[in-house]
């Protein structure tokens, strides 16, 4: 890399850091967002690799992800790697790589994404965008009840019979009467693929719709991930996995709101306690992040 090219890279990064600081200033204490090392990367610690058209997007991607401690950006291939370690914790893993740049995420308080409550209304989210943040209404049904989410996108650990297949998981479904498991245990789950990353703000549940079958889930956990390669993350509150209140009969709809929205493509419901048999119907509520 020539001296001129090196200067251009550093100048570009300084502009990006300034933009990120302006974005953060309105929502949290402003800190230096990034400490960078040109022409070097942190090897063997990337937990997520995604295309990124520019360095700015890579910086913001790291700030938004709660597990990101640092990032590598490859300018020629336009690829961003998010790392769970830093040059401080693992200096021996720094390697030379021309036209790449290593950046440490120094923002430990996540901007915007920790502050849905600032928007006031229960169904709103605080949405980080380039240049600032905004409150956004985020309470629309995502498509289980109305069929917008196709049957193929609803899968489960097991089901009891043709009458209780995973596609019976839809709120107010009559046929199938619900999703029901083949055997009651804590290994059961139902998964919904939303097709793209969405913000999920609320979930509604019911039991099985058959007069002769009194079956429902009385409590459950929720896990999610952004893509098929990421690890599943349990929803937590106050640093503990949250157990949500479920149903007490087969028809009443019970709602649970996520104080901090879930950002995910894949969502799993994991029943914890139940009445007679694990049986559920449900809807997810949220919005697009675009």
Automatic annotation (TrEMBL):
* Signal peptide location: 1-25
A Pfam family it matches: F5_F8_type_C
Superkingdom of the source? Eukaryota
InterPro entries assigned to the protein according to its UniProt record, in alphabetical order: FA58C (IPR000421), Galactose-bd-like_sf (IPR008979), Pan_app (IPR003609)
Q: Does the keyword Disulfide bond apply?
A: yes
Alphabetized, the UniProt keywords read:
Disulfide bond, Signal
Where's the F5/8 type C domain?
138-287
Q: Where is the Apple domain?
A: 30-107
Q: What is this protein called?
A: Uncharacterized protein
Please tell me the species this chain comes from: Desmophyllum pertusum
């Amino acid at each position: 890399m020539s001296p001129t090219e090196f200067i251009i890279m550093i100048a570009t990064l300084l502009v990006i850091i300034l933009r990120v600081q302006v974005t953060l200033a309105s929502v949290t204490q402003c800190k230096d967002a990034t400490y960078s090392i040109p022409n070097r990367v942190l090897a063997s610690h990337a937990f997520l690799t995604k295309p990124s058209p520019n360095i700015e997007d890579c910086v913001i991607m790291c700030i938004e992800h709660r597990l990101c401690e640092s990032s590598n950006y490859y300018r020629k291939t336009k690829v961003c790697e998010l790392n769970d370690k830093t040059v401080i914790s693992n200096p021996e893993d720094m390697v030379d790589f021309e036209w790449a740049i290593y950046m440490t995420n120094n923002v430990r308080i996540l901007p915007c994404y920790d502050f849905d409550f600032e928007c006031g209304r229960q169904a709103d989210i605080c949405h980080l965008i380039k240049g600032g943040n905004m409150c956004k209404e985020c309470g629309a049904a995502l498509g289980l009840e109305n069929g917008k989410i196709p049957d193929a996108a609803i899968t489960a650990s097991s089901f009891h019979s043709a009458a209780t297949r995973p596609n019976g998981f839809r709120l107010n479904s009559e046929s199938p009467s619900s999703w029901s498991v083949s055997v009651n245990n804590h290994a059961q789950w139902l998964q919904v693929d939303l097709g793209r990353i969405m913000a999920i703000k609320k979930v509604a549940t019911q039991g099985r719709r058959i007069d002769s079958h009194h079956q429902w889930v009385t409590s459950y956990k929720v896990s999610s991930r952004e893509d098929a390669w990421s690890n599943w993350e349990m929803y937590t509150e106050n640093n503990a996995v949250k157990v949500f209140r479920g149903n007490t009969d087969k028809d009443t709809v019970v709602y649970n709101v996520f104080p901090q929205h879930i950002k995910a493509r894949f969502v799993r419901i994991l029943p914890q306690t139940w009445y007679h048999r694990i049986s559920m119907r449900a809807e997810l509520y949220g919005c697009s992040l675009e």
